[in-house]
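Archive transcription. Copying these from loose printouts into the bound notebook so they stop getting lost. Printout 1 of 2:
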Amino acid sequence: MRIDDNLKQIYQRIFAAAQNSGRHPEQIKLLAVSKMMPAEAVKEAYEAGQRVFAENRVQEWMEKHPLLPHDCEWHLIGRLQTNKVKYLNNQIALIHSLDRLSLLTALEEQGAKRNIIWPVLIQVNTARDPNKAGLMPQEVEDFLDAVADCQHIRVHGLMTIGALEATSEETRMFFRELRQIRDLLQTKEIPQVKLTELSMGMSRDFELAIAEGATMVRIGRRIFGERHY
């Protein structure tokens, strides 16, 4: 199928999942994950009406975004290396993967140097998978206290990735725990922190994520097909 047809199907499924959960479809943003896809495929999605895209690697974003129209909204969802922060700019709408103090320090230093305030999500490893990045759930509150001391970071919410081998019920629990962490921490007034976004759900599990409160879903393969390289 073509990319435009794939997008229509995904939006239909988002609409149905939202309605089945008693939510408004407008509450959910679709991120078309264009990692390892050529700029031509991203342009095809753009021409089909998609405006929000996500890349895993800084280098791919640097190569693609100059080739796409200026009204594209770019998100960075992969693990961000501290030495790559200097290549980012305020054309990144949201960094989804703030997961450690060294990265927090690098973002704050670059933000101060270049007068940029970075919009970020905190990545949480609710699956407790040793092969995945992210803070353990019990570490999130202390980490947010460290963010409160930064002047160039704004936390907009939380992000997680479900475990690859998990059952549907286990995956749903991972997403539910992220929402529960968010709900608990929303009751606290932490400077530089506003936990409105939940980035969770990918091609295989985005409907479960919507049922548990996702405000952003990250879908690549079901839109673009198999990766090109």
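Printout 2 of 2:
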Amino acid sequence: MSETAIAKKQELVTLATEKVKESSSVVVVDYLGLTVGEVTELRKQLRDAGCEMHVLKNSIISRAVTAAGLEGMDDVFKGPTAVAFSKDDVVAPAKIIAEFAKTAPNLEIKGGIVEGNVSSVEEIEALAKLPNREGMLSMLLSVLQAPVRNLALAVKAVSEKDAA
């Protein structure tokens, strides 16, 4: 192998390592059997959610994950591999891929990385069932507003009782 080919592969490993390190979640999938149209649609949905998907050689992504200090993913990097990266929303790639897999049964989640920890297929699928960031913030806001709302209702009830 020529020195330029080795240098290019090393550069790809370096770029992939940076992606893995800066991502809050990484989902690895087997995309074999998807049509070009399906892959394009999946990429579009991921891009719209602020994620990106790359098809990488197993040797490149395996070295990148090892360079990022993660272990236990050797079984994941077998066969055709596409990797979805998300910097901000931990749930987005898992949710989009799991939802897309319902209409494209050839799309299969192989594993992933969540907040710097290696995750199994089951953990990624459980993550996909969680609400997205906006949904979680909405739930939190509801919980925070409940005591104030209840107090306001109690004050209103007391004032109406006194007025009667």
